[in-house]
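Title: Comparing notes on inverse folding

I've been comparing how different people in this forum approach sequence design from structure. To keep things fair, I'm posting one structure and asking everyone to reply with a full sequence. Here's the target:
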């Protein structure tokens, strides 16, 4: 017991005296919950398709620089029917969304805080999957360039609105008229 009491007195002598105002000795480290100011939270990244105007254009320019200067020279591979590409990929919203998400993940995983395996994780979990989806034979670029000797660009039409959306517009006071023979007919087929 004497030894424990002696150790307690020694620890009291070694501990710094409390700072005025009752601030924690951990305050200098800026840790939240330890009376420190805390670090300002980093701005949350937003998906590029949620941006508008100049903010969208700036983000698309930065993304384009990364795609053209890094992604394609290193990971672009050959353009084939199995792996199409489009020199005007910025006009394909789905491709822009995929590549932007890939770029955000790249920035996160190249940061030193991601650790030594950060880039491996980016390759394994993000790069392979995103490039396979973007460059799939039936993917968003499938109507575009499949041969470097024949550059082409075509935006594929998206699916029509769901039946639920069509029912909601049918109850609107303005009747909608079909745009052409390719419009889907809803209702039972006889």
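Reply #1:
Here's my take.
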């Amino acid at each position: 017991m004497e030894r424990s009491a002696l150790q307690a007195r020694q620890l009291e002598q070694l501990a710094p005296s409390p700072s005025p105002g009752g601030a924690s000795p951990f305050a200098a480290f800026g840790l939240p919950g330890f009376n420190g100011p805390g670090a300002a939270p980093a701005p949350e990244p937003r998906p590029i398709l949620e941006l508008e105007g100049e903010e969208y254009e700036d983000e698309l320019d930065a993304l384009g620089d990364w795609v053209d200067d890094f992604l394609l020279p290193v990971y672009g591979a050959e353009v084939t029917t199995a792996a199409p590409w489009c020199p005007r990929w910025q006009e394909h919203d789905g491709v822009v969304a995929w590549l932007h998400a890939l770029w955000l993940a790249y920035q996160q995983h190249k940061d030193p805080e991601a650790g030594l395996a950060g880039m491996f994780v980016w390759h394994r979990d993000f790069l392979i999957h995103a490039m396979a989806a973007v460059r799939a034979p039936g993917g968003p670029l499938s109507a575009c360039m499949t041969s470097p000797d024949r550059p082409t660009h075509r935006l594929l039409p998206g699916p029509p609105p769901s039946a639920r959306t069509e029912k909601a517009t049918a109850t609107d006071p303005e009747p909608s008229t079909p745009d052409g023979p390719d419009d889907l007919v809803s209702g039972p087929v006889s």
